[in-house]
Write a structure and sequence with these properties.
The complex is a heterodimer.
Chain A lengths: L11 H5 L1 H16 L22 E3 L14 H5 L5 E7 L11 E9 L8 H5 L5 E3 L14 E2 L1 H8 L8 H10 L5
Antiparallel strand pairs in A: 1-4, 2-3, 3-5
Chain B lengths: L8 E6 L2 E6 L4 H7 L23 E7 L19 E3 L4 E2 L10 E3 L3 H16 L15 H9 L17 E2 L4 E3 L9 H8 L6 E4 L6 E4 L11 H6 L5 E3 L12 E6 L8 E7 L2 E7 L31 E2 L2 E2 L2 H13 L23 E4 L6 H14 L3 E2 L20 H7 L11 H8 L5 E5 L10 H6 L1 E6 L4 H5 L2 E4 L8 E4 L4 E5 L12 H11 L9 H11 L16 E2 L29
Parallel strand pairs in B: 1-6, 17-18, 17-19, 19-20, 20-21
Antiparallel strand pairs in B: 1-2, 3-4, 3-5, 3-6, 7-8, 8-11, 9-10, 12-13, 13-14, 15-16, 15-21, 22-23, 23-24
Helix pairs in contact in B: 2-3, 6-12, 7-8, 7-12
The chains are: A alpha+beta, B alpha+beta.
Amino acid sequence: MAYVVERKPLTLSERMYIPQILAGMRVTLKHLFAPNVTMQYPEERPAIPTGYRGVPTLVKDPNGREKCVSCQLCEFVCPPKAIRITPGSVEDQPDRTHVEKGPQAFDIDMLRCIYCGLCQEVCPEEAIFLQNQYSMTGYTRAEMVNDKARLYELGGTLPDQHFKWDKKKDAAEHGNAH
Amino acid sequence: MIAPAKTELVTVNIDGKEVSVPKGTNVIEAARLAGVDVPHYCYHPKLTIVGNCRMCLIEMGMPAVDPATKAPITDTATGKQKINWIPRPQIGCATNASPGLHVKTNSPMARESREGVTEFLLINHPLDCPICDQAGECKLQEHSTAYGRGYSRFVEQKNVKPKRTELGPRVTLDDERCILCSRCVRFSKEVAKDDVLGFVDRGSYSTLTCYPGKQLANNYSLNTVDICPVGALTSTDFRFKMRVWFLKQTPSIDPESSVGANTEVWSREGVIYRITPRQNDAVNDTWMADSGRVLYKQVKADNRLLAPTINGAATAAQMAIKAAADLLVGRVVPDEPRGKTAHPEDSPYRNGIAIVGSGRSSVEEQFLTKKLADALKVSAQLVSRVGAGDKILVSADRNPNVRGALVTGLITALPASQLTSLAAGIDAGKVKTVLSLGEDLTAAGLTAAQLAKVSIIYLGTHKNATSDAAKVGIPTLTVFEKSGTFVNQQFRLQKFAKAVPGPAGINDDLVTLAELVAAAGGGMVSFDLGTLWTAIAAAVPALASVSYASLSSTGLLLDATPWAALPFVEGETLHFKPAAVPAAVA
């Protein structure tokens, strides 16, 4: 059975619209003096909370040396297969004594990356971190692949307490070298 | 297995399970027959036993007998014969099966022994797993997962040893990782017969090294890398190239000589990274030569032929095949009725066509070459390649498949290394067109002037003088890019599988040959291995019961008697003794 909605005729004040306009103006005035909730993106950027999973980056140790040893575990664990590493051996360099292996090329395809953070979790050298960079744009597909130089540029240096290469060097120089 | 006596079987009890094993089998192998895995490092089934790693410790016992009367003593509780368990663990590798032997491989004492051994091995073992090439196929890694404690009680500093010692041109030693199992030492001495490796110094100073002034440079040095249970010996070629868990394994055959060593090709996404031996106790045990391991480099070689050519200009594959067919069929004298019974031997260069087949082609390709030769009514010839045999796994005949050509009937006599008859035929103007299946004719004794006199159709993988001189060049695939079979020196039919896809636009050799056969009036033949093998089985009596799919991974030994009188060049190699050649032949 059809339900008939009764339509009341408009009252005088409703027909005048003035109370409605005033009510609307009251809201407008209130927001004119209220603090802003929007942000002038991209000039202004939000504060990123700690633990945020942004763009994966490669980081250097406090001495500014490459930490990645190209073990390819991140490449293995990466669910969308976004990571591609070409391993290579590292020749003895004065600042990198006892480092044997490092990546020749390290590419992360940001069109594939799902920001899951498994690469960071699996890394035995604490060399890859998802940091607070969240916006990746580009005009071509090739631009969206972060190569090794770009990954280090994005990653910078993070403090760590391991000093792995220093310890290796110490062990060789002191005590136990045969 | 360490040479088990063929006849006598003894019953042993492994973890409560009775198994019959040949007498003299050691406990590790006996347990393997019972489906029990006894962890070990230094023991290798193809090497002598030294028992120095102590990982295979087991608990063993013998049925109790009365010392005086030798009557069995029965355990009153169970009603069975009592077992006298030895109170200390024994090593499984050096304990041979004897009647009634009882073994516990997983008792608390055995487990505890292994945990102790593992902890001691890990004391000075570096934490290199993230960069170690052995990771993923490392016995120490596997047994540490099973018997390690997960954390280290070792608070002292670890030993530091040299990390990059070059033992030879192809082997790099990481001394820190070495667990001193001596497998490599025994291999060099016993199998490669080149006794260069040994341990020097004592205790934690113990180090693997070459004898002064010597190098681990023999052609079998990379087998030490394969048998190294840890990452101490690494292949300089494969070092830090790719982690093994990314690699796909494809069974293949080493094409460098007629030994036909079984191999495993390791590839990832169409790129081959290494070749290792695959166990075949009748051919190569678990070894292969170093020279066969670098053959994958020909796949990406700079001089690879990548495009079909006509007169040196790149063209489409179909055009090149058509041009080749025109060259061959166009030469057939029109009034000669096709399909007439051919007598190839009577007319070596009938219609001016010569076919140079190859001992490097697979059996299937040789079968199609034979069909093509029959259709054109000519006889094909091969080029032999003879080098020095090393008495281990490289034979004198460097063609992997000369016997395949004999079996398929492509040739009836052994090939010569020089094509003198063809050269004479060209000089006499009898030969106008030469079809070469990957054979470099200049290497086989033809001069550039002779090549210039004829139209050459070259089906091959790499650029050479013949491909440069060819009127029609059709690129083909390497052994890693196609499937097929070879017949080795024992007349063992062995199959290899396609490991990586061929370069874009290159047809399988069988496709090209099948089209040429069809164009020459030989009828439609399939280039699909399954269907092609039904045709081969129907046409070749020696292969009557064979199909590609049913051919086992260890191969099929064919009857060699029809060719017993031929003077094959091979000398003795591992698992092969040449049949006595009748003196009359020589």
